[in-house]
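Task card 7
Instruction: Convert sequence to structure tokens.
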Amino acid sequence: MLSLYDTLTREVRTLETRELGRIGIYLCGPTVYGPPHLGHGRATLVYDILRRYLEWCGLQVRLVSNITDIDDKIIDRANREQRPWQDITQKCENVWFDAMSRLGVKRPTDVPHATEYVDHMVKMISDLESRGAAYKTSDGMYLDVSKVPDYGALAHQSLDDMLSGGGDREVLGANEKRNAADFALWKFSKPGEPSWPAPWGAGRPGWHSECVVMSLELLGEGFDLHCGGADLRFPHHENERAQAVALGRRFARHWMHNGFVVDAEGEKMSKSLGNVANLIDLLDQYDPRAYRMLLLQTHYRSPVKVGRDNIDASVKALAGLDSFAARSESLVASGKATPDAEVVARFRATMDNDLDTANAMALIFDTVRRANTAIDAASPDAAPLAAAVREMCTALGLELGSGQRVNDDEFAFAREKAAALDAARAAKDFTRADALRAELQAAGWLVETTKQGTTLRRT
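Output:
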């Protein structure tokens, strides 16, 4: 029940995994009833960074992230707009993955949909009932949390402190609950609502039952890591774990929760407060990499303020890294430059300390400064330092460059021209050198001449 940052030596790469060299991760995915907001963006980016770093370290990662495609919010929107609920979920899911692609988030290994696992959920609830841990009310089936001896362990709360209903809706059967914290496993459907057959009556699964079934079905008992936002620690994750415990099954070995996104005044951004910024708007107005950059400079457990000032600062920081990438391209283009071992070792140690991306980014910026100094001095240290910057950014999923893709033939042609330019300058044939520079510029390249040679960047 410990969080990732409470675990053992705090070394991310040495988590006690079930299988050597492999790690199974479950990330609570979106409920697809509207556009993604900044909190969604943070959660997916944090765990994309974790996944990329673990893969860079040589681990084989299986990331399962679900789609909740049946829920009260989906039904409410369908009723308001007089639309089929499937139409809403399909379109919102497409919007979700388009946004994630623009953010540079790798698609999960598995994307289970809740509606695909309803039969499994019915069986799980039947098993809970047979164990005396689930009971029926006029509203649906509930879990009796008194059957879970350590209920509240993940949320660090006692049973007496649990919220009434476990965060579920106010319902007819709520006053029939045995304990205040008992929560819905199955909700009987109202007329006109989507439903599935079950021994207790037609209805649909409760939100907390969806993820526990999908995670155990795909990753198995004792899977390595369960992730999500801090707001999911209770009631969602607590209630997931409670069902597994009541079934006598081992659930996640480790837990990881990212902090909130807050507004300029430091208040948590949420739909209920009316201060949620739409992630799509941010992607439309800024370089999509800027949000990753902003989050990399904040520890994943800390709240992060998202506003024009710090997004603009992230864009500026990206421009500096892009400029460095262009300037150092000739040093690392061949792939023969070996990253500076000391820098890479410091990066690993920093990231292994509870995924400390903020200090990892400070190391990257410091290495860029050192590399620029080395380039100016024509030092042999320049290439290893530049290669280390590229290596670290790759591990974090931070793609450098102007964002305009250049195919291999274009780049090979441009490098050939750049080599000819360097040869002309060495031969003091400045007329030819100027002609080659003009040709490259006309083809859309920014040309910078240094002691190390010509560097190119797409304009």
